[in-house]
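The data are quoted verbatim here:
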Amino acid sequence: MAERGCPRAARGGRAGPGGRAVPGPEAEAPRGSRTVRGSLERRRCLYLRTGRACCQMVEVLLAALILVCSSVSCGSAGGYTGLPALGGIYYYQYGGAYSGFSGADGERAQQLDQRFYLLKLPIARAAMAVAGCLLVFPCVLIFVGVLRVPWHFPAWLLIECILYIVIAVGTLPALYYFLHSLLSVYNSSVCKEREQLYQSKGYQGFWCSLHGAEIAAGLLGCLAAMAYLLSAGLAVRDYRTVHEQKQKPLQL
């Protein structure tokens, strides 16, 4: 029986007393390293299943939608000057060869389009900058959570909670400024004259009022503020959970 155990001992590493095979260190090390590496990867992926991570991914989506809606206001002013440059069916339907503008009316429409575009440009750029920051913030927090920083440094969750509350409170005056500034542009004499000029030529869609993308940006901003408050509450809950688990290391 001892002779039959020798080949097995050679394969495993060395032979123990009674001819039993004892695995060598070179056979145990790769298996242990693979186990540790796999457990670390599973722990990092588990964060993406938590409620806080799901809420942060919703925040990323909302910020991306706000960025898209804000960029609409930063686009071309449309009308007589902007649409012919686009070409295609849009050009022949709203501007270009059969636009109805000629002479002084065409020059006046061009000036009004340019002035109206310049009035809206700073507001749209500010909204896009804020939306870009709101898009980066939850992405950074997701990356921090995947690296398990809150577990090693639980106070980070309290910092995260404070940041969320500040952003949620700051979102409300930012939305007010965004909508109030747009309404002031639409109530300006430039917009009123532009609207009357296009209506005199039979064109519709140049009204001096908020359009769908701008209203959607405001509603998405409200949803984002509620998501930030929810994330703040989840951060406090997770801080308590981590603190309790730190007090009971033997049960982990």
User: Anything to note?
Assistant: The chain has ten helices and two strands. Residues 97 and 252 are 75 Å apart (CA to CA). Residues 1-13, 24-30, 35-40, 81-98 have pLDDT under 50 and may be disordered.
